[in-house]
């Protein structure tokens, strides 16, 4: 492929990302820092081969192993919920999946720690994020419900799979003043996306919206 063709393709991809950011702005995402991150991350690189033509549509897509790459609006909403005036600090992500959410977070935060239970997805996401130059992302294959105590506390925690309740270790690893966003509810129940804020007095919760996520499962395996 010629240099001109490569440049043209990159231009189209950039235009698609900017158009997606515009759609999300129209759907109520108001933090320009988050929209800039959405416009910067090449979502098509995180999708399966058969779905690349849908990469910049506002929909979730299968990535195999019973998992999905989340709808861009949900990625933006969850990221926006974690943002403070000063931006993002150190972030823990539970459920690396395709690596797309981690890439968006890494565009905004100094350090992202991400945990994936499915070994094949862990390897694929790690290889891709390293190839794309996200050198502020740290990876682990294991049970994300246990968090990553070695690097706690975290200024922000994001959980990309649903459980009946928020795992206590994640609440314990959240810094005072920190925020946690997670879907709560079973597979066949109405799930609620919850924002938890920790203060010196304890934890406060706020419902953001109804959602549908795959279940949170422990252990690292194929």
Task: Describe this entry's structure for a reader.
With 222 residues, the chain is of the alpha/beta class. It has a domain at 59-211: Vaccinia Virus protein VP39 (Rossmann fold, 3-Layer(aba) Sandwich). 32% of the residues lie in helices and 26% in strands. It contains six helices and nine strands; from the N terminus they run H-H-E-E-H-E-H-E-H-E-E-H-E-E-E. It has helices at residues 3-26, 32-40, 72-82, 100-108, 119-131, 168-172, and strands spanning 61-64, 67-69, 91-94, 112-116, 137-141, 154-159, 174-184, 191-199, 202-211. The strands form two sheets. The chain has a seven-stranded mixed sheet with strand order 5-4-3-6-7-8-9. Strand 4, helix 5 (119-131) and strand 5 (137-141) form a beta-alpha-beta unit. Helix 2 (32-40) packs across helix 4. The longest helix is centred in the N-terminal third of the chain and has 24 residues, at 3-26. The termini are far apart. Residues 1-8 have low confidence and may be disordered.
